[in-house]
Amino acid sequence: MSSTDSTAPSAELSPEEAAAIRTNLDEVASKAASAAEASGRTSADVKVLLATKTQPADKIRVAIEHGFTLIGENKVQELVGKADALADLAHEAHLIGPLQKNKVNHTLRHAHCIQSVDNLELATKISKRLDFLDDTVGCFVQVNTSREDSKSGIAPEDAEALVAELRGFPRLQLRGLMTIGLPGQSAEEIRPSYAALRELSESLIAAGVLPAEATELSMGMSNDFELAIAEGATMVRVGSSVFGARDYT
User: Fold this and answer.
1) Which end of the chain is more exposed for a tag (fewer CB within 10 A), N or C?
2) Cα(60)–Cα(239) distance, rounded to whole angstroms?
């Protein structure tokens, strides 16, 4: 897979554009810290992951250089296509979108963590490739807590069985659970899908199915990450609130 598969590069960023990204990052961090403190935690308990779908490498570089070193790509071709341009900067790259089995090899070359493991067949493919590479990778189990047909993720009632199976794949370092929340206009609509993931995590840990250290909850995006933090998120995925609206051209 070549760099031609990635988002086309933008014109060089102006100082004003770079400054705007840094300002937005600081605002997101401040809001996340306030939400964490309101939930009885500290700012260190919540990580901000930058969802960089369609964003060019020069914008991502500004964010990494500003101290935001967690980035997440929805598509394998973007993960691969931007890797060389970011290789000189210390950062942690996550795949946060669906992973097809035929793209596992490409993904493992560049991803430190795969947040979208939602079936045993995919987990088996990843594990076998890691055996060949003699390597490990972090992973989250993606759970469809909103129960929308359009979304990936295992059904909450089936998560326990999948997590139990993953315990047999030591090269997959299970970090916790991930979900994409239900889009909504009010807190009453949005909160339940995030609360459901926290409750599932707590029950699986209490049952000894999910490892005691696998407490991470990746949930919440630009429009609702403060609500996700209130419900226990340890990692929020923000993009448009930092970089602006995505350019799909």
Assistant:
1) C
2) 10
Query: Is the CB of residue 83 less than 8 Å from the CB of residue 42?
Result: no
pTM comes to 0.93
Tell whether 89 is covered by a domain. Answer: yes
Does the pLDDT value for residue 4 go beyond 60?
no
Residue 2 is assigned to a structural domain of this protein? no
Which of 61, 64, 110, 59 is closest to 83 using CA atoms? 110
List the CATH number of the domain containing 61: 3.20.20.10
Buried b (16+ CB within 10 A) or exposed e, 194-228: bbbbbebbeebbeeebbbeebebbbbbbbebbbbb
Q: Rounded to an integer, what distance in angstroms lies between the CA atom of residue 135 and that of residue 127?
A: 9
The pLDDT score that the predictor gives to residue 249 is 62
Residue 8 within a domain: no
Per-residue pLDDT tens digits for 100-114: 999 999 999 999 999
Mean pLDDT of 22-29: 98
Number of domains in the chain: 1
Q: How far apart are CA 14 and CA 107, in angstroms?
A: 32
What range defines the domain where residue 27 resides?
A: 15-243
